[in-house]
Amino acid sequence: MKTILIRNVFFKERHVDILISGNRFSHISPAGEVSYEADEVIDGEGYAIVPPFYNMHTHAAMTLLRGYADDMPLKTWLEDYIWPYEATLTPDDIRKGTEIAIREMIKSGTVFFSDMYFEIPETIDVVNRMGVRAAIGVTFMDNHAKAVRNEKTRFIEEWKDPSGGRICLTAAPHAIYTVSAEGLKYSFGLARKHGLKIHMHLSETLGEVEQCIKEHGMRPVHYLDSLGLLGPDVILAHCVHVDDSEIAVLAKHDVTVVHCPCSNMKLGSGIFPYRKMIEAGVRVTLGTDGASSNNNLDMGEEMKFAALLSKTLGDVECLPADMAFKWATRNGAMGFGNDGGIIEEGRLADCLLIDTSEERMQPLHHFMANWVYSADSSCIDTVICDGRILMRGRKLLV
User: Whole-model pTM?
Assistant: First the structure.
């Protein structure tokens, strides 16, 4: 079992030594108090240690569409540009796009992403090789032929994780406007039969809500609830246009919501109901969405923009820095039921080392304020996932 000692690192207003054994934080003690032997020693002086980011909603290989179609409404963007372009992508394209995405995510401090895209074996292979964590969505849409749905079903039924616990699958019905009630029930049922989470888009635009009311006589959250589909295994991306009654239903069923502030702003989708979600006790997480609607995969930016966007209606105390940070880290881990996203003895050994000498981190009046509001990815020196160093000195090792 490999061991890594991070010595004299800044953690929760003090300096500590942290020993990683295998893929777990095994010991945390005041700096210099205990003598540890380790296979590798990192001098943590001048650095702070924090949990890494969990990107809870993205389409990794869409890095290939970065800058391809900008400054247009979601429906036009999706139907006239994105879907036709995606139809031309090959498995090798998906592999290359995913590699670009994972390099970008590691360099900006993300060690986990929840994906929803095509050519799943290609994505899994890249994730496994590059050492990050991922939840890979098996996408369901009504326009898939029956043979395609059967193939996806077999893939889930025969799935074996090649990574030793870093990779899982989700069932990913795309949205209520691309998947019928029958299709939703099928994909949700398949997920629950095999113990998978369910990941889908919901209530991203007003048009989606209006269409749902027209076709089903109710708003999207109530529609899913009427089908008996909501539960703690459900992860819903966006949820921009939800009313008070829908938020209460989300909280009641312990649904995880993924807020994607940059994508929502760029596509003009609307402003997330921050205060109401927080007061209702909904578990909110953050995601970048794809690089074609963001246009990057930097979760630090999502954290900052979420905190700032929440204040635009004059509610400056709504989403403080500490809470925005939790949305970007621990809440994502909780949404997937793993024990990462927090630095404690016995927890998964995922972390970032932040260079506190960087100009954006100085002066250090309040570390978390600097990290949320001031820092950018250039402040990240080291990225560790599952006890493996993926980046050190800003250089990728994978």
Answer: 0.97
CA distance 203 to 319: 22
Residues 113, 55 contacting (CB under 8 angstroms): yes
pLDDT digits (tens, 9 = 90+) for 194-247: 999 999 999 999 999 999 999 999 999 999 999 999 999 999 999 999 999 999
The structure tokens listed for 299 are: 């979760």
* Number of C-beta neighbours around residue 266 at 10 A: 19
pLDDT at 260: 98
* Per-residue pLDDT at 256 exceeds 90: yes
Amino acid symbol at 112: F
DSSP string, 26-50: EEEEETTSS----SEEEE-TTEEEE
Distance (Å, whole) CA 239 – CA 255: 11
CA-to-CA distance for 116 and 126, rounded, in angstroms? Answer: 15
- DSSP calls for 338-371: -S-SS--TTSB--EEEEETTSGGG-S-S-HHHII
Domains and CATH numbers, the chain: 3-51+342-396 (2.30.40.10), 53-335 (3.20.20.140)
In the DSSP assignment, the letter for residue 374 is: I
Cα 132 to Cα 94, 167, 189, 208, 209: the distances in Å are 17, 8, 28, 34, 35
Contact 239, 203 (CB under 8 A): yes
134 to 143, 185, 240, 251: CA distances (angstroms): 26, 24, 25, 25
